[in-house]
Specification:
single chain, 149 residues, alpha+beta, OB fold (Dihydrolipoamide Acetyltransferase, E2P), 5-stranded mixed β-barrel, 4 helices, 24% strand, rod-shaped
Length: 149
């Protein structure tokens, strides 16, 4: 049985290496400890081996869960670009979502821009910055914005 548990630890370890999330690391530890126990003093006690496997895996999970939660959670870092949301911009190059083209200028800075509703917006149009997706402003012409209210 020791080889079974060792094999299980190796298989679970390979699964863990193939994923980008922690899914089986606790079971790798449980299987490894159980392999040692099965090779030494629990040779003839399969039921106890299963209990050891489950107990070690559960304890490892409980002890490392707060650490894993802390490592996996992250806050979005606000950038200075968030201050542009809600501001007025001027389209300096026609915005056409189908051609992936368009530029708008906000506070003297030029940004790639896309129309929120997919319409073509001509250069010189005054627009409102609705949101920022990556490095693109998502805008709505003021004429459309006022008619929606």
């Amino acid at each position: 049985m020791a080889f079974f548990w060792l094999g299980l630890a190796i298989i679970l370890g390979v699964i863990e290496l193939c994923t980008s999330q922690l899914v089986s690391i606790w079971f790798v530890l449980g299987a490894f400890v159980t392999a040692i126990c099965a090779a030494t003093f629990l040779k003839d006690y399969v039921f106890l081996q299963i209990v050891v496997f489950l107990a070690v895996s559960a304890v490892a999970l409980l002890l490392t869960r707060p650490l894993v939660k802390r490592l996996k959670s992250f806050n979005k870092t606000k950038t200075n670009s968030d201050k542009n949301i809600g501001k007025t911009a001027i389209v300096v190059a026609d915005i056409d979502n189908t051609k992936s083209s368009g530029l708008a200028e906000v506070d003297g800075a030029r940004w790639s821009a896309r129309s929120k509703n997919g319409e073509v917006i001509k250069a010189g149009t005054t627009v409102k910055v609705e949101e920022i997706q990556g490095v693109k402003l998502i805008v709505t012409p003021f004429a459309n914005y006022e008619s929606e209210e």
